[in-house]
Protein backbone atom coordinates (compact mmCIF):
# COMPACT_ATOMS: atom_id res chain seq x y z
CA UNK A 1 0.00 0.00 0.00
CA UNK A 2 1.14 3.51 -0.64
CA UNK A 3 0.58 6.46 1.66
CA UNK A 4 -2.25 7.31 -0.67
CA UNK A 5 -4.99 5.50 1.22
CA UNK A 6 -4.32 7.22 4.51
CA UNK A 7 -3.64 10.64 3.05
CA UNK A 8 -5.64 13.67 4.08
CA UNK A 9 -6.88 14.47 0.59
CA UNK A 10 -8.17 10.95 0.03
CA UNK A 11 -10.25 11.18 3.22
CA UNK A 12 -11.66 14.58 2.26
CA UNK A 13 -12.50 13.40 -1.25
CA UNK A 14 -14.15 10.23 0.04
CA UNK A 15 -16.47 12.23 2.28
CA UNK A 16 -17.47 14.41 -0.64
CA UNK A 17 -18.32 11.34 -2.71
CA UNK A 18 -20.49 9.72 -0.10
CA UNK A 19 -22.50 12.79 0.84
CA UNK A 20 -23.04 14.15 -2.67
CA UNK A 21 -24.22 11.22 -4.73
CA UNK A 22 -27.53 12.83 -5.62
CA UNK A 23 -26.57 16.38 -6.62
CA UNK A 24 -25.06 17.65 -9.90
CA UNK A 25 -21.36 16.92 -10.08
CA UNK A 26 -18.41 18.67 -11.64
CA UNK A 27 -18.38 17.77 -15.40
CA UNK A 28 -15.88 15.11 -16.53
CA UNK A 29 -14.83 14.19 -20.07
CA UNK A 30 -13.60 10.71 -20.99
CA UNK A 31 -13.44 8.24 -23.85
CA UNK A 32 -12.54 4.56 -23.33
CA UNK A 33 -10.48 4.98 -26.51
CA UNK A 34 -7.95 7.23 -24.75
CA UNK A 35 -5.84 4.12 -24.00
CA UNK A 36 -4.51 2.16 -26.99
CA UNK A 37 -4.84 -1.54 -26.19
CA UNK A 38 -1.77 -2.84 -28.01
CA UNK A 39 1.02 -0.81 -26.44
CA UNK A 40 4.37 -2.13 -25.20
CA UNK A 41 4.18 -2.60 -21.43
CA UNK A 42 7.76 -1.51 -20.95
CA UNK A 43 7.28 1.83 -22.72
CA UNK A 44 8.00 4.85 -20.52
CA UNK A 45 4.70 6.42 -21.58
CA UNK A 46 2.15 4.37 -19.64
CA UNK A 47 -0.65 4.21 -22.20
CA UNK A 48 -2.99 2.35 -19.84
CA UNK A 49 -3.06 5.25 -17.38
CA UNK A 50 -6.21 6.81 -18.84
CA UNK A 51 -8.08 3.55 -18.34
CA UNK A 52 -6.63 3.18 -14.83
CA UNK A 53 -7.56 6.76 -13.95
CA UNK A 54 -11.12 6.10 -15.09
CA UNK A 55 -11.21 2.89 -13.04
CA UNK A 56 -10.03 4.74 -9.96
CA UNK A 57 -12.75 7.37 -10.32
CA UNK A 58 -15.36 4.76 -11.19
CA UNK A 59 -14.54 2.69 -8.09
CA UNK A 60 -15.20 5.72 -5.91
CA UNK A 61 -18.44 6.68 -7.65
CA UNK A 62 -17.16 9.69 -9.60
CA UNK A 63 -17.62 8.42 -13.12
CA UNK A 64 -21.28 7.53 -13.39
CA UNK A 65 -24.02 9.98 -14.20
CA UNK A 66 -25.02 12.78 -16.53
CA UNK A 67 -21.95 14.84 -15.60
CA UNK A 68 -19.74 12.43 -17.64
CA UNK A 69 -19.32 13.44 -21.30
CA UNK A 70 -17.75 11.56 -24.22
CA UNK A 71 -15.90 13.60 -26.87
CA UNK A 72 -16.73 13.20 -30.53
CA UNK A 73 -13.99 12.66 -33.11
CA UNK A 74 -12.75 16.11 -34.19
CA UNK A 75 -12.41 17.48 -37.71
CA UNK A 76 -8.92 18.01 -39.14
CA UNK A 77 -9.83 21.68 -39.51
CA UNK A 78 -10.14 22.01 -35.72
CA UNK A 79 -6.61 20.65 -35.19
CA UNK A 80 -5.34 22.77 -38.08
CA UNK A 81 -6.41 25.95 -36.27
CA UNK A 82 -3.10 25.38 -34.43
CA UNK A 83 -1.06 22.80 -36.32
CA UNK A 84 0.47 22.80 -39.77
CA UNK A 85 -1.94 20.94 -42.13
CA UNK A 86 0.92 18.92 -43.66
CA UNK A 87 1.96 17.70 -40.21
CA UNK A 88 -1.63 16.87 -39.19
CA UNK A 89 -2.24 14.85 -42.34
CA UNK A 90 1.11 13.08 -42.20
CA UNK A 91 0.40 11.87 -38.66
CA UNK A 92 -3.23 10.98 -39.34
CA UNK A 93 -2.32 9.08 -42.53
CA UNK A 94 0.70 7.28 -41.10
CA UNK A 95 3.27 9.01 -43.29
CA UNK A 96 5.08 11.00 -40.60
CA UNK A 97 8.84 10.56 -40.96
CA UNK A 98 10.84 8.41 -38.57
CA UNK A 99 12.83 11.37 -37.28
CA UNK A 100 9.72 13.05 -35.88
CA UNK A 101 8.26 9.81 -34.53
CA UNK A 102 11.57 9.28 -32.72
CA UNK A 103 11.45 12.81 -31.30
CA UNK A 104 7.91 12.09 -30.07
CA UNK A 105 9.18 8.83 -28.52
CA UNK A 106 6.71 6.68 -30.46
CA UNK A 107 8.94 5.27 -33.24
CA UNK A 108 7.43 2.07 -34.65
CA UNK A 109 4.23 2.61 -32.67
CA UNK A 110 2.02 4.42 -35.20
CA UNK A 111 -1.37 2.75 -35.60
CA UNK A 112 -4.92 3.81 -36.51
CA UNK A 113 -5.76 3.40 -32.77
CA UNK A 114 -2.99 5.87 -31.86
CA UNK A 115 -4.46 8.34 -34.36
CA UNK A 116 -7.93 7.93 -32.84
CA UNK A 117 -6.77 8.37 -29.25
CA UNK A 118 -4.63 11.39 -30.13
CA UNK A 119 -7.50 13.17 -31.88
CA UNK A 120 -10.08 12.20 -29.26
CA UNK A 121 -7.85 13.45 -26.44
CA UNK A 122 -7.66 16.88 -28.09
CA UNK A 123 -11.44 16.86 -28.65
CA UNK A 124 -11.83 15.96 -24.95
CA UNK A 125 -9.97 19.05 -23.80
CA UNK A 126 -11.95 21.24 -26.22
CA UNK A 127 -15.18 19.71 -24.86
CA UNK A 128 -14.03 20.25 -21.25
CA UNK A 129 -13.36 23.91 -22.13
CA UNK A 130 -16.83 24.29 -23.63
CA UNK A 131 -18.43 22.68 -20.56
CA UNK A 132 -16.40 24.89 -18.23
CA UNK A 133 -17.47 27.96 -20.19
CA UNK A 134 -21.10 26.99 -19.46
CA UNK A 135 -20.75 25.54 -15.96
CA UNK A 136 -17.58 27.10 -14.50
CA UNK A 137 -15.46 23.97 -14.15
CA UNK A 138 -14.81 20.75 -16.07
CA UNK A 139 -11.96 18.25 -16.32
CA UNK A 140 -10.72 15.92 -19.02
CA UNK A 141 -9.39 12.48 -18.04
CA UNK A 142 -6.56 13.10 -20.50
CA UNK A 143 -4.79 16.04 -22.12
CA UNK A 144 -1.84 18.24 -21.33
CA UNK A 145 0.15 17.44 -24.49
CA UNK A 146 2.22 20.59 -24.12
CA UNK A 147 5.45 19.64 -25.96
CA UNK A 148 3.74 19.54 -29.37
CA UNK A 149 4.78 22.44 -31.61
CA UNK A 150 2.93 23.84 -34.61
CA UNK A 151 4.62 21.50 -37.12
CA UNK A 152 6.13 18.68 -35.04
CA UNK A 153 5.55 16.54 -32.01
CA UNK A 154 7.93 15.97 -29.11
CA UNK A 155 8.17 14.33 -25.68
CA UNK A 156 5.26 11.83 -26.03
CA UNK A 157 2.96 14.54 -27.41
CA UNK A 158 1.62 14.85 -30.96
CA UNK A 159 -1.12 17.50 -31.13
CA UNK A 160 -1.23 20.25 -28.49
CA UNK A 161 -4.67 19.96 -26.86
CA UNK A 162 -4.11 23.03 -24.66
CA UNK A 163 -3.35 25.17 -27.71
CA UNK A 164 -6.27 23.82 -29.75
CA UNK A 165 -8.66 24.43 -26.82
CA UNK A 166 -7.28 27.95 -26.27
CA UNK A 167 -7.84 28.84 -29.94
CA UNK A 168 -11.33 27.27 -29.85
CA UNK A 169 -12.12 29.54 -26.87
CA UNK A 170 -10.80 32.62 -28.69
CA UNK A 171 -12.96 31.63 -31.68
CA UNK A 172 -15.97 31.57 -29.33
CA UNK A 173 -15.32 35.17 -28.31
CA UNK A 174 -13.23 34.70 -25.17
CA UNK A 175 -10.73 37.59 -25.14
CA UNK A 176 -7.94 36.34 -22.85
CA UNK A 177 -6.96 32.74 -22.04
CA UNK A 178 -4.42 31.73 -19.40
CA UNK A 179 -2.68 28.38 -19.75
CA UNK A 180 -1.52 27.50 -16.25
CA UNK A 181 0.95 24.65 -16.75
CA UNK A 182 2.12 22.92 -13.56
CA UNK A 183 3.44 19.76 -15.22
CA UNK A 184 7.03 19.22 -14.05
CA UNK A 185 8.29 19.74 -17.61
CA UNK A 186 8.27 23.14 -19.24
CA UNK A 187 5.42 23.76 -21.72
CA UNK A 188 7.73 24.53 -24.64
CA UNK A 189 5.30 23.61 -27.43
CA UNK A 190 2.53 25.78 -26.00
CA UNK A 191 4.98 28.65 -25.45
CA UNK A 192 6.18 28.48 -29.06
CA UNK A 193 2.66 28.33 -30.51
CA UNK A 194 1.55 31.44 -28.61
CA UNK A 195 4.85 33.34 -28.72
CA UNK A 196 3.27 36.16 -30.72
CA UNK A 197 -0.32 35.98 -29.49
CA UNK A 198 -0.76 38.26 -26.48
CA UNK A 199 -4.37 37.12 -25.98
CA UNK A 200 -2.98 33.83 -24.62
CA UNK A 201 -0.81 33.99 -21.50
CA UNK A 202 1.39 30.96 -20.87
CA UNK A 203 2.49 30.36 -17.28
CA UNK A 204 4.78 27.38 -16.70
CA UNK A 205 6.11 26.30 -13.32
CA UNK A 206 8.47 23.37 -13.81
CA UNK A 207 11.75 21.73 -12.80
CA UNK A 208 14.46 23.77 -14.52
CA UNK A 209 16.95 20.90 -15.02
CA UNK A 210 14.33 18.62 -16.56
CA UNK A 211 13.18 18.05 -20.18
CA UNK A 212 12.95 19.98 -22.50
CA UNK A 213 16.60 20.99 -22.30
CA UNK A 214 16.03 23.86 -24.72
CA UNK A 215 13.25 25.89 -23.09
CA UNK A 216 11.09 28.26 -25.10
CA UNK A 217 10.09 31.36 -23.21
CA UNK A 218 6.55 31.40 -21.84
CA UNK A 219 4.85 34.63 -20.78
CA UNK A 220 6.06 33.67 -17.29
CA UNK A 221 8.38 30.77 -16.48
CA UNK A 222 9.22 29.64 -12.97
CA UNK A 223 12.09 27.13 -13.15
CA UNK A 224 12.36 25.27 -9.84
CA UNK A 225 15.50 23.59 -8.53
CA UNK A 226 15.59 19.80 -8.14
CA UNK A 227 14.10 18.43 -4.93
CA UNK A 228 11.55 21.16 -4.14
CA UNK A 229 8.88 19.75 -1.78
CA UNK A 230 5.28 20.60 -0.87
CA UNK A 231 5.91 23.58 1.36
CA UNK A 232 8.27 25.50 -0.90
CA UNK A 233 6.32 24.61 -4.04
CA UNK A 234 3.04 25.85 -2.60
CA UNK A 235 4.69 28.98 -1.22
CA UNK A 236 6.01 29.90 -4.69
CA UNK A 237 2.73 29.03 -6.42
CA UNK A 238 0.71 31.08 -3.90
CA UNK A 239 3.04 33.97 -4.56
CA UNK A 240 3.00 33.76 -8.38
CA UNK A 241 -0.45 32.61 -9.53
CA UNK A 242 -2.50 35.43 -7.91
CA UNK A 243 -0.02 37.87 -9.48
CA UNK A 244 -0.59 36.35 -12.94
CA UNK A 245 -4.38 36.33 -12.52
CA UNK A 246 -4.38 39.94 -11.40
CA UNK A 247 -2.01 41.17 -14.09
CA UNK A 248 -3.48 39.29 -17.08
CA UNK A 249 -7.16 39.12 -16.00
CA UNK A 250 -7.93 35.97 -18.00
CA UNK A 251 -11.51 35.24 -18.98
CA UNK A 252 -10.71 31.53 -18.96
CA UNK A 253 -8.03 29.27 -17.45
CA UNK A 254 -6.77 25.99 -18.94
CA UNK A 255 -5.02 24.09 -16.15
CA UNK A 256 -2.42 21.38 -16.79
CA UNK A 257 -2.30 19.42 -13.52
CA UNK A 258 0.60 17.08 -14.36
CA UNK A 259 1.38 14.74 -11.46
CA UNK A 260 5.04 14.34 -12.45
CA UNK A 261 6.23 16.74 -9.70
CA UNK A 262 5.42 13.82 -7.35
CA UNK A 263 8.29 12.48 -5.23
CA UNK A 264 7.80 8.95 -6.61
CA UNK A 265 7.56 10.01 -10.24
CA UNK A 266 10.19 8.34 -12.41
CA UNK A 267 11.01 11.48 -14.43
CA UNK A 268 10.05 14.32 -12.12
CA UNK A 269 12.98 15.34 -9.85
CA UNK A 270 10.65 17.24 -7.48
CA UNK A 271 9.37 15.97 -4.13
CA UNK A 272 5.64 16.68 -3.92
CA UNK A 273 3.37 14.28 -2.05
CA UNK A 274 -0.25 13.29 -2.79
CA UNK A 275 -1.38 15.84 -0.22
CA UNK A 276 0.80 18.50 -1.86
CA UNK A 277 -0.69 17.81 -5.30
CA UNK A 278 -4.22 17.88 -3.87
CA UNK A 279 -3.52 21.19 -2.12
CA UNK A 280 -2.02 22.56 -5.36
CA UNK A 281 -5.06 21.60 -7.45
CA UNK A 282 -7.54 22.93 -4.88
CA UNK A 283 -5.57 26.19 -4.69
CA UNK A 284 -5.42 26.75 -8.47
CA UNK A 285 -9.09 25.95 -9.06
CA UNK A 286 -10.27 27.99 -6.06
CA UNK A 287 -8.14 31.02 -6.97
CA UNK A 288 -9.60 31.11 -10.49
CA UNK A 289 -13.23 30.37 -9.63
CA UNK A 290 -13.30 32.87 -6.78
CA UNK A 291 -12.38 35.53 -9.38
CA UNK A 292 -15.15 34.37 -11.72
CA UNK A 293 -12.69 32.72 -14.13
CA UNK A 294 -13.88 29.32 -15.46
CA UNK A 295 -11.36 26.46 -15.36
CA UNK A 296 -10.88 23.40 -17.58
CA UNK A 297 -8.41 20.89 -16.10
CA UNK A 298 -6.29 18.30 -17.93
CA UNK A 299 -4.11 15.57 -16.44
CA UNK A 300 -0.67 16.24 -17.95
CA UNK A 301 2.32 13.98 -17.31
CA UNK A 302 2.87 11.23 -14.77
CA UNK A 303 5.35 8.35 -14.88
CA UNK A 304 5.26 5.27 -12.69
CA UNK A 305 5.63 1.57 -13.36
CA UNK A 306 2.67 0.62 -11.17
CA UNK A 307 -0.24 1.58 -13.40
CA UNK A 308 -2.80 1.44 -10.58
CA UNK A 309 -0.80 3.86 -8.43
CA UNK A 310 -0.38 6.17 -11.43
CA UNK A 311 -4.07 6.07 -12.37
CA UNK A 312 -5.04 6.96 -8.81
CA UNK A 313 -2.44 9.71 -8.64
CA UNK A 314 -3.90 11.33 -11.76
CA UNK A 315 -7.37 11.23 -10.13
CA UNK A 316 -6.24 13.81 -7.57
CA UNK A 317 -7.24 16.54 -10.07
CA UNK A 318 -10.80 15.26 -10.46
CA UNK A 319 -11.25 14.72 -6.72
CA UNK A 320 -9.92 18.21 -6.01
CA UNK A 321 -12.24 19.68 -8.67
CA UNK A 322 -15.24 17.96 -7.10
CA UNK A 323 -14.24 19.14 -3.61
CA UNK A 324 -14.01 22.76 -4.81
CA UNK A 325 -17.21 22.41 -6.85
CA UNK A 326 -19.01 21.31 -3.72
CA UNK A 327 -17.51 24.00 -1.49
CA UNK A 328 -18.35 26.79 -3.89
CA UNK A 329 -21.86 25.49 -4.67
CA UNK A 330 -20.82 26.21 -8.21
CA UNK A 331 -23.54 24.07 -9.75
CA UNK A 332 -26.16 26.68 -8.96
CA UNK A 333 -24.10 29.62 -10.25
CA UNK A 334 -24.68 31.12 -13.67
CA UNK A 335 -21.55 31.26 -15.85
CA UNK A 336 -23.08 31.97 -19.22
ZN1 LIG B 1 5.60 16.23 -17.76
UniProtKB/TrEMBL annotation:
Single GO biological process annotation from the record: epigenetic regulation of gene expression
Protein name: Histone deacetylase domain-containing protein
Keywords assigned: Hydrolase
Residue ranges of domain Histone deacetylase in the record: 43-306
Highest taxon of source: Eukaryota
Pfam families reported for this sequence: Hist_deacetyl
Species the sequence originates in: Rhodosorus marinus
Alphabetical list of InterPro entries matching this protein: HDAC_classIV, HDACs, His_deacetylse_dom, His_deacetylse_dom_sf, Ureohydrolase_dom_sf
Molecular function per GO: histone deacetylase activity; hydrolase activity
